[in-house]
Amino acid sequence: MRIHSFLVNCHRWKKKITPKMKKLTLLFVLAFILLACDKDDGITPVCNTVTNVSSISVTSNSAIITWNEFDASATYNLEFGVSGFTLGNGTTVSESGSSAQLNGLQPNTVYDVYIQTECSSNNLSAYTDVHSFTTSSPPVIPEFRNNLSELNLFSSNLNELNITSLAFEYNLNTTLFSDYASKQRIIALPEGASMTYDGDGLPVFPNNTVIAKTFYYNVNDRDLDLGKQIIETRVLIKLNGNWESGNYTWNDSQTDAILDLDGSVLPVSWIDNDGVTQSVNYKIPSNNDCFTCHQSFDELKPIGPKLRNMNFDINGSNQLQQFINNNQLSGIANPSSIGALPNWEDDTFSLEERARAYLAVNCASCHIPGGQCENESTLDFAYETLLENSDIVERKESIRFRVSDYNDGISMPFIGTSILHTEGVQLINDYLDTL
């Protein structure tokens, strides 16, 4: 009934609408539209989010962030922090242009950046999607500063021995015996420079090259997750054509190493691969000791990184070829013409090859023309020296005596060890027995 009555009344009202009323109604509608349009002119425009966010001029502690702006009168609020931070907890900066410089950043770190446009205090855009960038490594410092950390050879926590991206690790086929210590060997070349091929021996290193060798013992050789005790880091730096040496002794907390030119003795214990606890009184050399072994014709020189001792495969790839591919070694296209020092532990080589390689690495730094013992001994342990010219046969019993027992000041090597290398002594004696 009510619906029917409503429809009847609407029909009656429709009949009563006159042309004049229709005209008035139309004018009312037009006025309403004009007023509504006038109010639309006062609506706050949309504050647009910037586009094309990028990072340029990224260094170890700074970066410039750029973007495309829509409104030259707007302010742009940047919030940044270590990757993964939550918005509202980062560092903020505001800029009126289309770029901002971020300072005080940490090296080797991934950062996230978000940008919001502020058209007015109550008109803000949405944040951009995250933009990420990674700061670079700080430059390696070719100076003997008080703390090892100041040289920038490692990134993050120093005791993790993570090598800076500006240096690289090298390995030797036959290594020097140092009381069973493990070693990490690295080379840092100046930016854009390389080692230069100069035969099978040492390459030519550019000035400001830094070579570092870190000595450590695993707490347990069978479980590397238990960590290690780092003892020392020996450093050579080439400055103005000459090599200089310095030694860094690690502190008890393993947070840094201090330049120490005097040397010391440190008791060390570890569990070997057989589960046996071993102990040594490890001798950290003085700077004079370093010169004793590293001198050649009264000049200080590296011993280990000879090309012939680095010419072997690691994980299926030749180490020297990798150096060439990475522009770290120049002057040669491939290592095929470079000799290779045998691995003394590889019994696919002859006994003589293995023993001569061991003697070359462990003894020839002194017993070689130009070495420390040139005027005290006729022995020449260089691997390339022919047996008949080495005096090994003539002096074999003297060699046997000097290596077969440990007597401080008598046994060989004269410095650098405090115990016998059982396996090395056996190799030498087996070889001498054939002569």
Can you characterise this structure?
This protein is an alpha+beta fold and 435 residues long. The chain has 4 domains: 2-40, no CATH class; 51-134, Immunoglobulin-like; 139-331, no CATH class; 342-435, no CATH class. 21% of the residues lie in helices and 28% in strands. The protein is built from 9 helices and 24 strands.
Please outline what is shown here.
With 435 residues, the protein is of the alpha+beta class. It has helices at residues 2-16, 19-40, 287-294, 307-310, 319-325, 351-362, 387-390, 396-403, 422-432; strands spanning 51-56, 63-68, 75-82, 91-95, 99-102, 110-120, 123-124, 131-134, 154-155, 162-163, 168-169, 182-188, 195-196, 210-218, 228-239, 242-250, 257-259, 264-271, 277-284, 295-296, 299-300, 313-314, 317-318, 329-330.
Give short descriptive properties of this protein.
9 helices, 435 residues, Immunoglobulin-like, 4 domains, alpha+beta, five-stranded antiparallel beta sheet, elongated
Portion in strands: 25-35%
Compute the gyration radius: what is it?
A: 37 Å
Shape: elongated
Biggest β-sheet strands, sense, barrel = 6 strands, antiparallel
* Overall residue-averaged pLDDT value: 89
Distance N to C terminus: 131 Å
Please give the number of β-strands: 24
Residue share in helix: 10-25%
**Number of separate helices:** 9
**Uncertain parts:** 1-17, 24-41
Structural class: alpha+beta
Strand order of the largest sheet: 11-12-14-15-16-17
Number of domains: 4
